[in-house]
Amino acid sequence: MPLPSSPIGVFDSGVGGLSVLQALRAELPHERFVYLADSAYAPYGERGNAFVTARSRAIADYLCQQHQIKALVVACNTATAAAIDELRMQYPDLPLVGLEPALKPAVAQSQTKRIGVIGTRGTLGSTRFGKLLASLQGQADFVLQACDGLAHAIECSTLHTVSENNPGHTATRALCARYTQALGNFGHRPGEIDSLVLGCTHYLFAQDDFRALLGPEIRLIATGEPVARQTRRLLQAAGTLCDEGTPSASQTPVQLYTTGTLSALQTAAMRWLQVPATWCQTITLPHN
């Protein structure tokens, strides 16, 4: 049985889920985490549901069997849409937290009630997202935009050092400009978009590009903080919240694994989590 000292598992198709891990560490500073970036198969949003479900099951099996996790955060909108129900059936006693684009917080905050939503084609085309959208019918006007290639460009940006000549950064800026333009007019007048929902965990790492394009007045709404709060609630209910003390000095508070290029995860972890490269490792994870 998991103990309060057991780690929390977190996974994404790549490094985007590190944005959720940031929020989890802020909300739960005494917990240990095991993060898995399935970068060899990223991005999930441009793959089929059967493939994403198979990868999600393989990752959940690995984290449960090899790390004895006490909870699992599916830090990927596409994996949540494709696989969360099956994972809950497979692990009925494991606290599971999935992601969904933050439409409800956007409705609560928007003044014009015209909201842009960007995400992968897999997320925006999913049955789960369709139900979420239908549940908010009449509360706001949602303008959807599938951002093909954006998650991949952000992933690729971690293969190089931060510079103006980084091809991943160049592609990210160009795609952010293309997709925000496609959404229409942003602003605070009637009929204008005043909030942009970042419906993929990768997109938070392009927030500087979105800010440069849209200005400081437009709200950028991500999912990390609500997910972190829900994780805390589930751990409290299960009696496994590690609320006092700190992880043992002999235990690394965050272990990070990738199925892809080690240097990409190391660069992302150092840049976005301020953790040492030595906390990162590569693994090979076959399909179930």
UniProtKB/TrEMBL annotation:
Transmembrane segments: none annotated. Keywords: Cell shape, Cell wall biogenesis/degradation, Isomerase, Peptidoglycan synthesis. The active site is at C76, C200. It holds the Pfam family Asp_Glu_race. The keyword Isomerase applies. Its EC number is 5.1.1.3. It is an enzyme of class 5 (isomerase). Provides the (R)-glutamate required for cell wall biosynthesis. Belongs to the aspartate/glutamate racemases family. It catalyses: L-glutamate = D-glutamate. Pathway: Cell wall biogenesis; peptidoglycan biosynthesis. InterPro entries: Asp/Glu/hydantoin_racemase, Asp/Glu_race, Asp/Glu_racemase_AS_1, Glu_race. Signal peptide: none annotated. Gene3D superfamilies: 3.40.50.1860. This is Glutamate racemase. GO terms for molecular function: glutamate racemase activity. Substrate binds at D12, S13, Y44, G45, N77, T78, T201, H202. It comes from the Bacteria.
